[in-house]
Specification:
Length: about 400
């Protein structure tokens, strides 16, 4: 017998001889049922609310949890990590040195290798392409994630090179008192070349190329009437630059300012890191200044990837001498967080901002929440790359390890 039938029967038994008859009995029965239903509804609401609060508490606990340890999933302990360079390429790790390069899988298996001879190799990676170039030499090698592409020989020593997502390479070449901004296809053929001088437009400090390769942005340093100034120049190799002198579609001058670094943070957005702040440019067809930010604090470090850029500023608080800030390409600040730990290197990999100080490592997520704070038992860290949610490739003085946070 269910609850409703039980209550109805009790009412009939208690009211059989009462005045008012059957209608009064039914009314009393219905009132009691309504009160019971309200009690059930309230109880259900409280149970649901409790479940929601418990779920929120668990979620907050997960979000705020700080990992202190890790599990080694695979390792290559005999790797010579001190004399080689490493950079992330797709899901693997590109290792390069004086005599060649090879791509390692996450389990430290060699996917392919390429031999060459360089005295001071450096690298740049974008998407599935990479370029390894001999700094102050004349050899570059274009590599693809599934196999090497081939060499490029330059006329003059290479100061810097950047690769595009289709394998083309933008370079700064040194030619005595002159420099060249040369642009090569992946097969080594020249797309464009521009000669520069200290007086016009200046000495190139940094270069960046848009992911599709249609625009090259260069930061120049020049001296005018004894004053140091900087100039940002945009070269277009698409339709917009065809009828322009030297393919220049825009240039900006910053007096008494040094601009040591420029970078594309997505297909259309470039950032110039000035010594007194930063400037965001939109370069879709034409070039426009979107954000011009001047900072009172000293810029200590910069970092970026293809989605965000960040700064470490000198803080004014004794307990928090550093300020970590992250921005999206529009210049919207995602977070600003003070911290008190020194570091030797900072980078962004995947969805983590990673700071290293010898064997000590801190990781912040993109909301500024500390997610890892611990020491690597294998020794001083050279590089850390995120390959999955809690999985990382760690290059240290003890070798290469794929780890999982725990």
């Amino acid at each position: 017998m269910n609850v409703k039938e039980y209550i109805k029967r009790k009412f009939l038994e208690q009211s059989r001889d009462s005045v008012g008859g059957q209608e009064k009995i039914i009314q009393l029965y219905e009132d009691r049922i309504k009160r019971l239903a309200k009690i059930k509804i309230k109880r259900s609401v409280w149970i649901t609310l409790g479940v929601i609060l418990l779920a929120v508490a668990i979620l907050i606990s997960i979000q705020l949890h700080v990992y202190r340890d890790y599990q080694v999933l695979s390792s290559a302990e005999n790797e010579d990590t001190q004399s080689a360079g490493y950079t992330q390429m797709g899901d693997g790790l590109l290792k390069y040195g004086d005599d060649g390069a090879y791509l390692l899988s996450q389990s430290q298996k060699i996917v392919w290798n390429q031999t060459y001879e360089m005295s001071n190799p450096a690298s740049d990676v974008r998407g599935e392409y990479a370029v390894i170039y001999d700094r102050k030499g004349t050899l570059m090698y274009v590599l693809k994630e599934n196999s090497p592409v081939g060499p490029i020989e330059t006329k003059f020593p290479i100061l810097q090179a950047e690769v595009t997502e289709n394998g083309a390479v933008a370079t700064v070449l040194e030619d005595g008192e002159k420099t060249w901004i040369n642009y090569y296809a992946s097969d080594g053929s020249i797309i464009a070349e521009n000669q520069t001088r200290m007086g016009n437009p200046g000495y190139p400090l940094d270069i960046t190329v848009s992911p599709k390769g249609d625009i090259i942005m260069v930061s120049y340093l020049y001296i005018e009437e004894g004053q140091i100034s900087s100039k940002i120049v945009f070269y277009s190799f698409g339709d917009e630059g065809q009828n322009k002198v030297d393919n220049i579609i825009a240039d900006y001058t910053y007096e008494n300012t040094l601009i040591p670094q420029v970078a594309y943070v997505n297909a259309q957005t470039a950032v110039a890191f000035r010594d007194d702040g930063y400037t965001i440019f939109e370069s879709s067809g034409t070039v426009e200044t979107k954000v011009e930010e001047e900072l009172k604090e000293e810029i200590i470090s910069t970092f970026y990837n293809d989605k965000y850029f960040g700064l470490v500023l000198k803080g004014s608080e004794e307990k928090e001498p550093y300020i970590l800030q992250l921005f999206d390409p529009s210049g919207r600040k995602k977070f600003s967080k003070g911290f008190d730990r020194g570091y030797q290197d900072i980078s962004i990999s995947g969805d983590m901002i990673i700071m290293c100080d010898s064997e000590n490592v801190m990781m912040y997520n993109l909301n500024g929440i500390l997610k890892f704070d611990g020491a690597m038992k294998e020794g001083a860290v050279k590089n850390i790359f995120q390959v999955a949610s809690k999985r990382y490739i760690v290059v240290s003085e003890g070798g290469i390890n794929t780890i999982r946070l725990k």
